[in-house]
Amino acid sequence: MTERIRDFLRRRREDGPCLVVDLEVVRDNYFKFARALPDTRVFYAVKANPEPQLLKLLADLGSSFDTASVVEIELALDAGATSDRISFGNTIKKERDVARALELGVRLFAVDCEDEVEKIARAKAATGAEDVQVFCRILCDGAGAEWPLSRKFGCEPELAIEVLEHAHRVGLEAYGVSFHVGSQQGNTEAWDQALGSAAMIFHTLAEKGIHLSMVNLGGGFPTRYLKDIPAVEAYGQSIFEALSRHFGNRIPATIIEPGRGMVGNAGVIEAEVVLVSKKSRAEDEIRWVYLDIGKFGGLAETMDESIRYPIRTDRDADATTPCVLAGPTCDSADVLYEKAPYPLPVSLSIGDKVLIEGTGAYTTTYSAVAFNGFPPLKSYVI
C-alpha cells in the first residue's frame, strides 16, 4: 500500500467499504510493460477497472484498449483513445453491437467460430465499413494460472484455420491469432505452447495464400497477492524467446492485454469488521469474521478461494488464530475463505478496519448493484 493511499484513508469521511486506486502505481506498471516488451502494443483490458480517470491516464500514456462491449468502447473513446487503438476482444457479440462498434470506427474484432465471422461480415456490409480485421482466439490450457480460464472462449487451432479462411472468403482481413494463458499466470513459460500453435496456423494459412500479421498474446500477467511473482521483465524475456523460437526472423506484430497486472497492485479496499463469532461452545479455534464487503460487494474472485488477498489490520502484531472470513449478505455463498481459513489477530473486534490489498482489478466491476440493499463498492482514484 502506498503512502498516498494511507493519507487518503486517514482523511476520508467514513462511508462504508471503498476501493482506493493510486494512479502513480498504474503509471509505473504501464512503463514496466512497455519496457519489457518494447515491440509489443499494450491494449489495457478495460474490464479490469474502467474508472474514467484511470483510462484517461493510460490513453495519455499511449495505451490501446481491449474492450468487451460497446459501453467499454465508448469509455475508451471518451478517455481520449482513437478508434484505431481499440479492439473489440469479446468473442460473443450481438450483431447490432458489432455494427455500432464499426460506426464508432473500431476495425479490430475477436472471433472463435464461423458464425461470429458471419455477424461481422453482415455488419460490415450494412455499415459500409472498410478494412475490417479479425483475429481468432484459440484454446489454451492455462496450466500454472491461479484462475485458469474455461473452454468458454476459443477453439482448437485446427478449427481456427477454418475460421480464418472463412473470414478471408467473406471479405474480412484474416489478421491474426489470439490466446489467453489464464489469469494470474505464475509460469513465465506459459506462452510457449500457444505460440507454437499460433506459428502453425500462420504457416498453414500462408501455404493457402492467406498471410496473417498479428499475434495477440492476451493477458495473464499477475499482480502480487500473498505469494511473490516473477518480474514483468522475466515474462517479456520468455515471450520474446518463444516468439523467436517459433517464428524465427519473421516475428509478427504482437499485442498484450494486461488488466490485473496493470492495476491490481494499485488498489486497496478498506473494510470494517461487522461481527466476530463462533459456531459452537466446543474448544474450537476457528472464529467467523464477517466484513461489510464480500463476494457480492466486489470480492467475487475469492470464488473457490482462487485469489487470496493480503489482509492487513492495526492489530497485526498480536497473536493470530485461523478464521473463516465472510461477507455481510444473507446468502450462504457469501463466504470468502473457509477451506483454508485465514490467520487473523485474536484481538480483532467489531468495528475494526481491515485493509484488503491487491484489489485494484476486478472488484468494482464485479460489485453487485444493491444485492440485499448493499450499495455498490465505492471507488476513489488518487
UniProtKB/TrEMBL annotation:
Belongs to the Orn/Lys/Arg decarboxylase class-II family. Its cofactor is pyridoxal 5'-phosphate. It holds the Pfam family Orn_Arg_deC_N. Keywords: Lyase, Pyridoxal phosphate. PANTHER family: ARGININE/DIAMINOPIMELATE/ORNITHINE DECARBOXYLASE, ORNITHINE DECARBOXYLASE 1-RELATED. CDD domains: PLPDE_III_ODC. One of its GO terms (molecular function) is ornithine decarboxylase activity. The active site is at 330 (proton donor). Signal peptide: none annotated. It catalyses: L-ornithine + H(+) = putrescine + CO2. Pathway: Amine and polyamine biosynthesis; putrescine biosynthesis via L-ornithine pathway; putrescine from L-ornithine: step 1/1. The keyword Cell division does not apply. It comes from Salinarimonas ramus. One of its GO terms (biological process) is putrescine biosynthetic process from arginine, via ornithine. This is ornithine decarboxylase. Residues 26-263 form the Orn/DAP/Arg decarboxylase 2 N-terminal domain. GO terms for cellular component: cytoplasm. Its EC number is 4.1.1.17. The modification N6-(pyridoxal phosphate)lysine is found at residue 47. Transmembrane segments: none annotated.
